[in-house]
Design a protein that fits this description.
The complex is a heterotrimer of chains A (226), B (200) and C (223). In chain B, 44% of the residues lie in helices and 11% in strands. Chain B has 200 residues and is of the alpha/beta class. In chain C, helix 1 packs parallel to helix 4. Classes of the chains: A alpha+beta (226), B alpha/beta (200), C alpha+beta (223).
């Protein structure tokens, strides 16, 4: 969802930043299990990061704001595991009631060594592109005014605003298509620097800037009439 | 019910109790007369509602001079029929035509023309309506069963100031013989917000 | 709060509309009382609508989205009564627990007939204004990019967009100052018509428009 509450840049009302001294990596043991489960089930769930993000954004706004970070992760994981048939509602109900369920071993899990290897290797999102870049470093560009219903990584606060290209990153998986499994559809990625005064108006500090990584389809050549 | 954290005893979760406590306290201290509270409630439960607006619309359909006065100064025109007061001080009537379909929303809160329509229905106050009416009015209208041709303008009025908007719906065909009272029966609340059309 | 979740125009994710036939004006007695109390308290609380709106917008975003419409009214009303020192939280807790406590009568309330007169008369926000209009009907104007942390009635979705003035509304109480009791500071307001394509991009219907009532300080000439 493009314009849902996850797109928070510039919003008011969320109060001071809740800083915590000596914050533990996980506040509850279950949070660590959720992260671990998320990482190890990835291959079986056949999802990708953009789809995962998109699922999170589709939570009802009140729920999205009410839930803690790992609660959102967990609810998403539980839902996707059920959707993809890895577990059934009945299995979960039995386990909630304190019963065990039979071992069926329907798949081959990722072992600890493989998991460490996957982590160490990381994953590249860059892709080869043949098309030549539409923009060069130093070009003035406008972020398009788009409001698609699906997933996008162009924040609302940047739409319609003018900035300067400060870097070009080659081809990168395009979230807007990848999120719906419509293909990686790689597009060229740029870093665009916006003046705070352009984003937020004349009350902003004239020295301040915000740099945003934006894919080529989000950008247009600045029109002469504005 | 979720609420902001306070460093004292949390209030009861039952709003019935909590409202009663506040009314009792304000009454005992003389700030509020419970009979005045009842008068407010009674006004909007039994006296003021969309029937007022329907009478205005029916009169505009049958009396061209009144219609002109309504479009020129809706507050004065509605006052002729005895409809005025809070949230109707600066009424504006917007007319549906062959070229334009009007629809009213308040994206920021719940502004609504009380003297002619009463209090707004839940859907008008809903987050879904407030968020969607300005960006996809046609999809919203479809959910209300109203289809607007692609080449006709949908004009959304976002009530940001203290003006309150009333849609003057199109008079249905084949109603030439109907009396003003009979015409008023065809005017639905939704047709005066713009999410509906007059009954046929 | 300017950019809080109350500024919903154009947001996604709130789902389909629920449309009830024959919906009652109030769903419960506490809603009924909350509405009546709010109307009856505006005078004694010495607040104005802009201030009440501003307070409702300052409810935490999570709460704002989670609770019902009249819940927000009630939370605002209760906080106001406490903040203004009219009642104490302790007294309210005692009353809610069914205890009878003695409270002194501070003032005389508005009686029912006074209340009815208040409803019937209304109170216009229109104010005379001497300064000549900066814009005329037909002018192209741009809504400024403003992000104040206080109350404003310039919706986010219109900021930076260009529209056409279609009506001069004369002087109107200015919400941005009235909300903080910094004075009514009347400013001229205009109805500005924006093309849906200007607001939402080329996917919008080219015929569609959105009209917004905007005060002079929100606008600048479109050049």
């Amino acid at each position: 969802m493009t314009n849902s509450v996850h797109d928070m840049g510039g919003m008011h009302g969320f109060g001071p930043i809740p800083r915590e001294d000596n914050e533990p990596i996980f506040h509850e043991e279950w949070e660590g299990r959720v992260l671990g489960l998320m990482m190890t089930t990835g291959a079986h769930l056949k999802s990708n990061i953009d789809n995962t993000r998109s699922q999170s954004e589709m939570l009802p706004p009140a729920t999205y704001l009410s839930l803690a970070y790992y609660e959102r992760w967990f609810l998403r994981l539980e839902r996707v595991c059920k959707q993809k048939g890895l577990v059934s509602e009945r299995d979960l109900a039995a386990l909630w009631a304190g019963h065990d369920i039979p071992e069926t071993l329907e798949a081959e899990p990722i072992g600890p060594d493989d998991m460490r290897r996957i982590f160490a290797k990381g994953r590249s999102y860059t892709r080869q592109l043949d098309a030549s870049p539409l923009f060069a470093v130093g070009d003035t560009v406008r972020a398009k005014n788009i409001n698609p219903k699906g997933h996008t990584r162009l924040p609302r606060y940047a739409r319609g605003k003018v900035g300067v290209v400060t870097a070009e990153h080659g081809g990168q998986i395009f979230p807007d298509t990848n999120a719906t499994f419509s293909g990686e559809g790689p597009e060229r990625l740029y870093t665009v620097r916006f003046r705070a005064t352009d984003l937020w108006g004349s009350d902003a500090n004239t020295k301040d800037t915000v740099c945003i990584d934006l894919w080529e389809p989000y950008l247009e050549t600045i029109r002469a009439d504005r | 019910m979720p609420h902001d954290s306070h460093d004292h005893t949390d209030p009861p979760s039952d709003l019935t109790l909590r409202v009663k406590a506040l009314e009792t306290a304000l009454t005992r201290k003389g700030y509020v007369d419970p009979a005045a509270v009842d008068a407010v409630v009674d006004t909007f439960e039994t006296k003021v509602g969309p029937r007022n607006g329907a009478a205005v619309v029916a009169k505009a359909w049958t009396d061209p001079d009144f219609k002109q006065r309504l479009l020129d100064d809706a507050s004065a025109a509605c006052a002729e029929l005895g409809f005025s007061g809070q949230q109707g001080e600066q009424l504006k009537a917007v007319e549906n035509t062959d070229d334009v379909h009007n629809i009213v929303v308040c994206t920021l809160c719940s502004c609504y023309p009380w003297p002619v329509l009463g209090l707004p229905p839940s859907w008008y106050k809903s987050h879904a309506y407030r968020s969607r009416a300005v960006i996809e009015p046609r999809a919203v209208l479809e959910e209300f069963g109203v289809s607007i041709p692609e080449d006709k303008e949908v004009r959304v009025w976002d009530s940001t100031a203290e003006l309150r908007y009333l849609v003057l719906p199109e008079r249905p065909d084949g109603t030439d013989d109907l009396s003003e009272d009979a015409l008023a029966e065809l005017v639905t609340r939704d047709s005066m917000i713009g999410t509906g059309v007059a009954k046929k | 709060m300017t950019n809080s979740v109350h500024d919903m125009g154009g947001m996604h994710g709130f789902g389909a509309l629920t449309h009830y036939d024959n919906e009652p004006v109030f769903e419960s007695d506490w809603q009924r009382k909350t509405f009546g109390l709010m109307m009856a308290s505006l005078g004694p609380f010495q607040v104005n609508l802009d201030n009440v709106r501003s307070r409702m917008e300052s409810i935490s975003p999570t709460t704002y989205l989670s609770v019902g419409y009249y819940d927000k009214w009630f939370l605002t009303l209760e906080d106001l009564a406490i903040e203004k020192g009219l009642v104490s939280r302790e007294d309210l807790a005692a009353l809610a627990a069914g205890k009878d406590i003695s409270l002194t009568r501070d003032v005389d309330p508005i009686p029912a007939d006074g209340m009815l007169a208040f409803l019937a008369t209304g109170a216009t926000a229109a104010r005379p204004i001497d300064t000549p209009a900066r814009f005329a009907v037909g002018d192209q104007v741009r809504a400024k990019t403003l992000n104040p942390s206080g109350h404003t009635r310039l919706p986010r979705y219109a900021r930076g967009k260009v529209g056409t003035v279609i009506a001069d509304l004369g002087g109107q109480i200015y919400p941005d100052s009235n909300a903080t009791f910094s004075g009514e500071g009347p400013e001229r307001a205009f109805t500005v018509k924006f093309k849906a394509t200007e607001l939402w991009g080329s996917e919008a219907n080219a015929k569609d428009t959105v009209c917004i009532d905007l005060w002079d300080p929100y606008l600048e000439p479109a050049t």
